[in-house]
Amino acid sequence: MNKYVERLYNGVIKENPTLILLLGMCPTLAVSTRAMNGIGMGLSTTAVLILSNLVISLLRKTIPDEVRLPAYIVIVASLVTVTELLIEAYLPSLYEALGIYIPLIVVNCIILGRAEAYANKHTPLLSVMDGIGMGIGFTLALTVAGLIREMLGNGTAFGLQLLPKGIDPIGIFVQPPGAFLVIAFIIAIMNAIGIKTRQRKLVDGGCDGLCAGCTSKCDREASAK
Amino acid sequence: MKNLILIIISGALINNVVLNQFLGICSFLGVSKQMKASASLGGAVIFVITIASAVASLLYTYVLAPLGLDFMKTIVFILVIAALVQIVEMFLKKTSPGVYKSLGIYLPLITTNCAVLGVALTNVQNGYNFIESVLSGFGTAVGFTLAIVLLASIRTRIREEDIPAPLRGAPIVLISAALMSIAFMGFAGLSF
What SS3 class is residue A156? Predict the structure, then answer.
C-alpha cells in the first residue's frame, strides 16, 4: 500500500482516534445528540486538524523544541478562531447547535496529540494525509454515535422521522446520560468482536492514554525521572 | 446575594461540568483510577479554575472588550491559562512545598483540561461580572472535584467485581458515569 493511502487507512480504521485511541472524548460526548451535529463538529475539527498538521509540519525545523507546546497552542488557537468566525458567518444554525464546543476545539486532545506524535516529525504532505485520515475517523465516529442517539432518543435520522407517530422515543438518549451509555456500548461491542482499544499504560499514576494532550507532558515527566 | 449562591449551586450541581457539560472528561476518566490522585487533582483544579476565571474576567472587561478584540478571546484565554498554571506551579514550589508535593504532576496537566477554558468562555458568554465569574469558576471546580472523587470511589468497588469481559476497562467506567449523570439530573429540580 502506498504510504499516503496507508495514512488514511491508519486514521480511519487502524488508529481511529475516538474509538480505538479514545481521544477527544469531550466533543464526542457533547455534540453527538444529532447525526448532523456530529458531521458538523467532525468536519470543523478535520479542517483545523489538516491545517494545523500542515503548518506545524512546515515549521517543524523552525520552532525550538523547548517552546513547542505554546507555539502549537497559538497555531491551533488561531486556526480555531478563523474556523469559528467562518461557521458563525456562513452556517449560523450549526454555530447555534455547537455553541461553546467550537472554541473548545483548541483543547481537543486529537489536534495537539497529532501535532506532537506525527506532524513535527514528518513531511507536510504526509502530515496533511494524516490529518485527513484522523479527521475522517473522528467524523465517522461522531456521526455514528450521533445517529444512534438521534434514532433512540428522538426517533429521527438526519432529521427524517423514523418512528411512527404514537411510539415515544427513549428521551434519555439525547440527554447527557445517553452520551455516556452509547459510547460505552459502542466500545463494549468493539471489545466483544475483538477490536481492542489501545489505551496507553498509566505513567506515574496520572497520565492515561485517554488524553493525548497530556501524554507529551507525561512522557517528559517520565523521561525526567 | 441569592443570585450569587445560585451561581455556585448551579455550577457545582445543576450544570455539573463533567456529567452535564462533558468538559474535562479526559482527566475525569483518566485520573479517577485512584482515590488519592483524584482528590489531589480536584484540589489543583479548584485552585487553578478559580484564579483563571478571575484573571480571564479582568482581561476581558478591561483589555479585550474596550479594544474591540472580542474575537481574540480564545487565543488570549488559552495562553493566559497555560502561563497561569506555570506561575502557580512556581509560586507553590517556593512558598508551600508541602502543597506542591501533594499536587505533584497534576498541576501541569490542568492546562489541557478543557474545563478551565470552558468556564472562562462560558463566563464571558453569560456576561458575568468579576465576582460572578470567580464564584462560577469556584462552583464549577467544586462540581468537578465532587464528580471525580465519587467516580474514583465507585471504581475502587468495581475493581472487586466480576464484570463481563467486553465491558471491562473503559465501558464500565462510562456506564458508571452515565448512572452518576442520571443521579445528577435530579438536581435540575433545584433551579428556581
Answer: strand
CB atoms within 10 A of CB A128: 20
How many domains in chain B? Answer: 1
Mutation target to probe the A interface, by most A beta carbons within 10 A, among B20, B23, B114 is: B114
Count Cβ–Cβ pairs < 8 Å, chain A vs chain B: 156
Residue of chain A minimizing CA distance to B105: A206
Query: Which chain A residue shows the shortest CA-CA distance from B32?
Result: A206
Which residues in chain B are contacts of A106 at CB distance < 8 A? Answer: 74, 78, 117
Report yes or no on B159 lying in a domain: yes
Long-range contacts of A156-163 (CB under 8 A, 24+ apart): A157/A35, A158/A35, A158/A36, A159/A34, A159/A36
Residue type, A142: L
The pLDDT assigned to B142 comes to 94
State the pTM of this model: 0.85
CA distance A84 to B70: 13
Question: So what's the ipTM on this one?
Answer: 0.86
**In this predicted model, what pLDDT tens digit does every residue of A182-225 receive, in sequence order?**
999 998 998 888 776 665 433 333 344 334 344 444 444 444 43
Structural domain contains residue B6: no
Residue B13 lies in a domain: no
User: A154-184 pLDDT, tens per residue?
Assistant: 888 888 888 887 788 888 898 999 999 999 9
- CA-wise closest residue to A56 among A129, A125, A120: A120
Choose the mutation target among A214, A218, A220, A225 for the interface with B, i.e. most B CBs under 10 Å. Answer: A214
List all residues of chain A from 3 to 22 with a beta carbon under 8 Å from chain B: 22
Q: Which residue from B minimizes the CA distance to A83?
A: B71
Domain-located, residue A202: no
Beta bridge partners of residue A207, listed in sequence order = A203
Quote the domain boundaries for residue A97.
Answer: 3-192
Q: Do B117 and A177 touch (CB under 8 A)?
A: no
Q: Kindly state the cell numbers that stand for A58.
A: 512546515
Which residue on chain B is closest to A185 by alpha carbon?
Answer: B171
